[in-house]
Amino acid sequence: MKLLNLSKKIFLFLASLLFFTQLLSEESVNIWTKVNSNKKINSVKKNDVSLNKKKESKININSRKTNNIEINSNNLEINKNLISGLYDPNEKNLTLDMWVNSEGTRVKDTIERINKIKLSSFAEEIFLDTLLTISNLPDRNMTNEEFTDYKIDWLIVNKKDKLINLFLNKNKNFPSKDKILKYLVDKNIAKANINDACEQTSFINSNIKNLYLEQFKVICLINKNKKNEAQLLLDLLREQKLSNNFFDNKINYLLGVNPTVDQKIDDTNLLNFYLSSITVPDFNYTPDDKTSTKIWEYLSSANLINIENFNDENKVKELEIAANKNNLEKAFILEIYKNIKFDFDDFLNIDKIYQTLDPVNARALVYQKTLISDNVETQLKYLFLLKDLFKKDNLANVFKEYLSQKLKILDATKIPLEYETIVAENIIYEKENRLGKIKYSDKNYHTSKAVRYYVEKKLTKKNTEKELYKVYKKLKKNKKYKISLKDAILLESLHNDGLSIPKEINYEEVSKNNLPPAELSNLIKNNEIGLALLKIVELVGEDELEDLDSQTVYFINHLLGKAGLIKLRNKILITVLPDRTEI
User: Cα–Cα distance between 285 and 442 in angstroms, integer?
Assistant: First the structure.
């Protein structure tokens, strides 16, 4: 009996334990159910987004004080709405929720308009900082795949190779990863850097299903003399019906399975063209104006264009057109010109002879004349004649960079007076955004030593207030002095940063008359920081920061201050406010 009672007690204990275990399990499920329901509430109550996101992602974020943001791989994997990027939000003074309150269609439309603009370095910097900062998705109407595509496509179109490689290395798995890999593979093949191209295949994993990359991987394995592995991968592609007769024939030849190979040259893509070039004996390909840029580049890089065969004027014209469209290295055209034969008398009577020749030979003769001339005036004469000959046939793009380089290296003291203006007009200068040394002055608030608070960063608030009071007393004596927009930019920034401004300085009146557009202000009020920054990028467009009018600079600065984007605001302050010496 005692044993029976003991058995009952044990049974009751185990049953109770099982009951409580199930109860705890159910409570655990309910907890996650609540979290999911909170997400639904978040979509309605946008004002609570930041708070809820903190709880869900367990990432410490403060919209004003972002110094304590902690992002690690575990946290990122928890939140599936977190989009791939390069920058920690804290690094750019942004937050994870900068897109959350925005509607995806508006974001997409704005990015598509920006894509049509050639951005200035200032606008591009803001654009990249905004687009490449790790953050959560817009609230609706945009998927992770769509947003990632916008980033990748812009980087590829604008050939931001360093950023592309950083993006690839920093983000393990992301949508359209195969697009980046294909771009890098093609870029290196086009430069005939096959080993570098093969290095990109190390990023290919089981998540990437891309026939182009898998086929290239077979070629790389053969290139590394890993033929057995190449054969296994080829067999796998065949089983999956991802191969074709052209590819099989070429690979079997490279593997040594077939002693011969067909003579077919496939130029439908760069991979097939490369495969053709390394398998077809006595490879000979004649490009034309429809040949893709990548194939032109590969032909040039791999020395597969035979200059000696270009006695045909029409063939050279096709190459000139290709170079003018940036499909072919422009130096290649000049190399062709250099190899065209002329008699000594042609150079003696060049002014008459070139006019009797066809356009290609005329340009070639004049180009060679510039090379053998040792007199600056003679060089200039024929350089500008050659420019006119290119321009006449709508081929100016072929020659303008070369002309600029030649003009830059000429001895300026030997340039005749009549050529000075035209020489200056044809030199291409790359704009350098270097800033000269600051010159402080008490003639304005924005040029005073109060600016040192932002320039030197070590100046205390107390000392800054003293500097400001000094200039105030001096300017107060000038009854005609009026506060400018640049003054208002400085004074408003100092006030927002907690510094005391003399009450008699009435900068608010100037501010009221130059407020930003209502649309931009509303975006900041709604905490749509990402979209607001895109709108600013669209507004600035091709203009550099130094070229913007004071009103535009004021309201951009005003908006950044309201948004708490102090780092970006301060960069603008130290760029546009102080007087500087010329570099």
Answer: 71
* Predicted model pTM: 0.75
Q: Are 500 and 463 in contact (CB under 8 A)?
A: no
Q: Please, which residues bridge with residue 438 across strands?
A: 580
Quick count: other Cβ atoms within 10 Å of Cβ 61? 20
Identify the DSSP state of 447: T
End-to-end Cα, the chain, rounded Å: 104
Distance CA 7, CA 10 (A): 5
Q: Which residues of 381-394 are buried (b: 16+ CB within 10 A; e: fewer)?
A: bbbbbbbebbeebe
Residues of the chain with pLDDT > 90, as a percent, come to 62
Alpha-carbon gap, residue 554 to 490, rounded angstroms: 9
pLDDT, tens digit, 9 for 90 and up, residues 12-38: 444 444 444 443 343 333 323 333 334
- Beta-carbon contacts of 515 under 8 Å, excluding residues fewer than 6 positions away, are 521, 555, 558
Contact 540, 583 (CB under 8 A): no
Helix (H) / strand (E) containing 136: strand 135-136
Domain ranges of the chain: 306-425, 438-580
3-state helix, strand, coil in the chain (%, to 5): 65, 0, 35
Residue 375: what residue type? N
DSSP state of 331: H
* pLDDT tens sequence across 274-315: 999 999 998 989 887 788 889 988 998 898 887 665 677 888
Burial of 133 per CB tally in 10 Å (0-12, 13-18, 19+)? buried
Let me know: does 318 contact 345? Beta carbons within 8 Å: no
